[in-house]
C-alpha cells in the first residue's frame, strides 16, 4: 500500500517515525458525463475569468476570497511558515475510553505503518500500552492544508487512526425528532424487542453491495448488446394503520426467514429407520428359515442315493471280475 503522508507520532518524549496509509477503499462504480446525442465526453476546462483563456495546472495557485469579494493570494511559502507543531507530527494529547468518542465525529480511517527498523520498538510499545489500557489516544495532526483531530486505536497488530471532526463541526440534532407527543405502550416495546431478538446479529463479512452487483450486470448486458435485466415490480406501499399488526407480521416474517435454509435449498435430513413389527417380520422369517433346511435335506438325500448307486456299481463290477477269473481257471 502506498503511503500518503510521512511523519512521526509524538508520544511524550518518544518519537515514532510512521507512514500514513489509507485503511479503506471505494468499490463504487463511477460514471463519465457524456453528450447524450453522440456519446461525446463532457470535460471541464479551467479558464481565467480576466483573460478568458484556459490555463494549465502550473499556473493555478491558492487564494482566499474575502467577504467583499477581494481575492487574497496565499502561496505555499506562506503556508510553510505556519506555527503548527503538527505539520509533520501526530501529536498525542490524551488517552480516553473508546466510548467517549461520538461516532458522529468519525471521519476517514488510516493505518499507521512503522517507518523503518528503528521505529519497530516504540511502535510496539505504544500498541501494547493501548491494548492494556483499553483506551484510545486522541491526537492532532496536519493533513492537506489543515490541522485535524484523530483517534488512535489497535486493529490486529497495527495501529489505526480515525480522523475526527472537531466538536464544533458536528451539528446538534435540533428539529430532527418528532415534535408531536407520542405514547409507546409496553406491548409495542415487547414486540419490537422480539423483532430485534429474532433478527439477531449478523457477520458483517457476509454483507455485500447488491446495488453495485446489479449495476455491473446492467453494464455487462449493455456492453454485450443485450437488454438489461428488469427489476421486480415494487410492492405497493401505504400507510401503516396498525402498528401492532405490522410488528407481529414483521416478527413472523423474520422467524420464517431465520428458519429457512440458506440459499433457498431444502435441508437434507436422514430419515430414521422404521422398526419392524411382529406382523411383518414373521412371514418373511419363516420361508427364509424353512427353505435352507429343505434344500439341505434334498442335498443330503441326493448324496446318499448317489453313494448307494456308486457302491452297487462297484459291487457288481467286483462280481463280474470274479466270474471272469473263475471261468478262465476252469478252461485252463
UniProtKB/TrEMBL annotation:
GO terms for biological process: DNA recombination; double-strand break repair via nonhomologous end joining. The keyword DNA repair applies. It comes from the Bacteria. Residues 278-289 have a biased composition (Low complexity). SUPFAM superfamilies: SPOC domain-like. Keywords: DNA damage, DNA recombination, DNA repair, DNA-binding. Residues 252-332 are annotated as: Disordered. SMART domains: Ku78. Residues 52-181 form the Ku domain. GO terms for molecular function: double-stranded DNA binding. The keyword Oxidoreductase does not apply. Belongs to the prokaryotic Ku family. PANTHER family: NON-HOMOLOGOUS END JOINING PROTEIN KU (PTHR41251:SF1). With LigD forms a non-homologous end joining (NHEJ) DNA repair enzyme, which repairs dsDNA breaks with reduced fidelity. Binds linear dsDNA with 5'- and 3'- overhangs but not closed circular dsDNA nor ssDNA. Recruits and stimulates the ligase activity of LigD. Homodimer. Interacts with LigD. This is Non-homologous end joining protein Ku. It comes from Streptomyces alanosinicus. The lineage of its organism: Bacteria, Bacillati, Actinomycetota, Actinomycetes, Kitasatosporales. The gene is ku.
